């Protein structure tokens, strides 16, 4: 299993010292990152990633509201092969016609991205799961309208906050899901209460196992009451130890 860190988790540290923050990420043991809103910082971020041997297979950018060519050009510069729109407010997910319009826009973005050799995806919050359209969650209704090449990054924590069983949701969405956000906590909207993987109410390892076509699992905290670098370290160690245990149980070298 391949793991990454969503750099939004470290936004305050990045604002103070981008190169130093990326260096810490590498020292903790991450080999991949998921940048956010990366157009403005592409050159500095690219230099920091190269200096520390990190890659960025995916990145977040507001494809549905900003210049797509600018986003795709910056993504190509950073080596990002999948650009994911991270956020569309709740009001866009209450009516079928609004969801259809969003799907059309994302499908058009995917066609433009393909010219740059870049795939396009979408990342959910809780409201796409709270809203029900024609007997389905709004996220699943939306997925049915997307072109085959458009992928999903399921935020498994927000899916649970939205009232869904993340494992069942991932199984229903199937091979459309190429990325997930891995986070843990009490399953509520208090982001400060989020916890390192394995310490909250999410069955993190079962959730990962339910994503059958997963390419990268992305560690993320929306916020954290403790030291954020300690939090992401604990999450990564939990995931690494689980992988080592699984290898031993399968009779493979750890």
What would you note in describing this structure?
The protein is built from eleven helices and ten strands. It is of the alpha/beta class and 254 residues long. Strands 2-1-10-9-8-5-4-3 form an eight-stranded parallel β-sheet. It has a two-stranded antiparallel sheet with strand order 6-7. Helix 2 packs parallel to helix 3, helix 3 packs parallel to helix 4 and helix 9 packs parallel to helix 10. The longest helix has 22 residues, at 228-249. The radius of gyration is 18 Å and the shape is globular. The two termini are 13 Å apart.
Structure summary:
It contains 11 helices and 10 strands. It has 254 residues and is of the alpha/beta class. It has an 8-stranded parallel sheet.
**Measured distance between first and last alpha carbons:** 13 Å
Strand ordering within the main sheet: 2-1-10-9-8-5-4-3
Task: Give the structural class.
Answer: alpha/beta
Q: Could you name the ranges where pLDDT drops below 50 across 5 or more consecutive residues?
A: none
**Strand fraction band?**
5-15%
User: What is the global morphology?
Assistant: globular
- Give the overall pLDDT as a whole number: 96
DSSP strand tally: 10
**Helix content estimate:** 40-55%
The radius of gyration over CA amounts to 18 Å
What's the story with the biggest beta sheet? Answer: 8 strands, parallel
Layout of strands and helices, then pairs:
Layout: E1 3-6, H1 11-16, H2 18-28, E2 33-34, H3 42-51, E3 58-60, H4 68-78, E4 82-85, H5 96-115, E5 119-123, H6 127-130, E6 132-133, E7 136-137, H7 138-143, E8 151-155, H8 156-161, H9 166-173, E9 177-182, H10 204-210, E10 216-219, H11 228-249
Parallel strand pairs: 1-2, 1-10, 3-4, 4-5, 5-8, 8-9, 9-10
Antiparallel strand pairs: 6-7
Helix pairs in contact: 2-3, 3-4, 9-10
